[in-house]
Amino acid sequence: MKIESLLKKDEINGSELEQMIELRKKNQLDFVLVDVREEYEFKNQHIIGVDKLVPMSELSIKADELENFKQKLIIAQCKSGGRSAQAQMFLRRLGFEKVLNLSGGILKYRGQTS
């Protein structure tokens, strides 16, 4: 996987996220995985490695919780990719430099979940 080519994209797929999570475990990549689904969805199932739960319905009032990550790579994920695409656009408007969307969301993700 070429990290440079991933960073030029707007979206990543589940397989790419799995690889990125493995690289992060080895301290070879740094990013913040943000789940923008509702809390009940997160409790039902979530990707192992999520750093922050900030529901899309609360993102406008909780965006400051992500302020420390403004310069970092952020990966937004939801159930199918729609809400995370909205979160991606919202965060970019707030000046977040690099936000990727997990295409297909947790529905298409084949890595570890809880």
Largest sheet strand order? 1-5-4-2-3
Number of discrete helical segments: 6
How many structural domains are formed by the residues?
1
> What proportion of the residues form beta strands (DSSP E)?
15-25%
CATH homologous superfamily descriptor: Rhodanese-like domain
What kind of sheet is the major sheet?
5 strands, parallel
Output the radius of gyration.
13 Å
Kindly report the oligomeric state of this protein.
Answer: single chain
Supply the helix-strand structural class.
alpha/beta
CATH topology: Oxidized Rhodanese, domain 1
Describe it for me?
With 114 residues, this protein is an alpha/beta fold. 38% of the residues lie in helices and 16% in strands. The protein has 6 helices and 5 strands; from the N terminus they run αβαβαβαβαβα. The protein has helices spanning 3-7, 14-25, 39-44, 59-62, 82-93, 105-108, and strands at 11-12, 32-35, 52-53, 73-77, 98-102. Strands 1-5-4-2-3 form a 5-stranded parallel β-sheet. The chain is globular, with a radius of gyration of 13 Å. The two termini are 25 Å apart. The mean pLDDT is 95.
